[in-house]
Amino acid sequence: MTQASLGQSVVQKEIQSQNNGVAANVTHTQPLWLLAEVTYRCPLHCAFCYNPTDYDKHTQNELTTEQWIQALRDARRLGALQLGISGGEPLLRDDIEEIVIEAKKLGYYSNLITSGVGLTEKRIQAFKDGGLDHIQLSMHDITEEINNFITNTKTFELKKKVAAMIKNHGYPMVLNVVIHRYNIGHIGQILEMAEALGADYIELANTQYYGWSLVNRSQLMPTKEQIDEAERITNEFR
Amino acid sequence: MSIQQTDIYAIALHHRFQWEEAQSCYVILFPEGMVKLNGGAGEVLNLVDGKRTVADIVTELKAKFPDAPDLEQDIIGMLELAIEKAWLRQIN
């Protein structure tokens, strides 16, 4: 940098990219985010899941720990900075601790994306020691009934306990709520719940209509009116 | 808010500031996002370490870039922006 450019460039306060890591003004494309879907396996069976409908056929073909670590290194060299460790439920693998340590070594800002099922005190402590930066927990709705209906599991109370565990370990907590016709009418209460659980961020995610959710699309897709109303309530809450 | 010469700042909790070789710039990383900093902004935040005062930062950058006009105002402006964006926390 030249001496003259410092003053000028600070004044411009130029920020090249924000918005979830999506670069706004880049002239060449480097990947910034690596989303590692380390497994399709999952203890939940959500109607809105993007997993392929034949995902059980693929469980024998998961990448090994070494292959994932190589993928992390390769992506890092290409410029990726943010790492999402996702699935399926990533905690069904027992090598996430190793992957977290490697991610830290490589300079990733790493994020565990989990349903909370399988997150024990022992594992969360190992992740903390290994340098995991934050945890994104999925929540589905404000009531046990709808949570259990949409996920086909009894996981509502467990998720609340896991939320408290994440906070206790000093992690920033992102709650992710996939939105569909069954919960879109509760947006206001979902936001209140997130606040009560101490969430630092909340992501209201559109259902990604692949795999299972594509099969169930006619049941899941909200109406335009429901979306407009949910947006209004969300903006008011902001 | 007004920034005082004696103020000491550090990078905010849950945020990480680092040099990125692949992008040739400093970045700030945080949950679900990142910011790429241009050269000047990166130079300023690189000195925000929880120990240096604002006056120290100004002195160091003036020594490094003696010909840059209005440097102090620019540095304060950058710090104000970083505080507004919650990238920094005040230590003292």
Structural features, described:
The complex is a heterodimer of chains A (238) and B (92). Chain A contains ten helices and eight strands. Chain A is of the alpha/beta class. Chain A has a single domain (29-237), classed as TIM Barrel. In chain A, the strands form two sheets. A six-stranded parallel β-sheet of chain A has the order 3-4-5-6-7-8, with helices on one face. Chain A has a two-stranded antiparallel ribbon with strand order 1-2. In chain A, α2 (65-78) packs parallel to α3 (96-106) and α3 packs parallel to α4. Chain A is globular and about 45 Å long. The N and C termini of chain A lie far apart (40 Å). In chain A, 36% of the residues are buried. In chain B, 36% of the residues lie in helices and 24% in strands. Chain B is built from three helices and five strands. In chain B, α2 crosses α3 (71-84). The model of chain B has no long low-confidence stretch (mean pLDDT 94). At the A-B interface, α1, β1 and α2 of A face β2, β3, β4, α1 and α3 of B.
Briefly characterize the structure.
The complex is a heterodimer of chains A (238) and B (92). Chain A is α/β, with parallel strands linked by helices and 238 residues long.
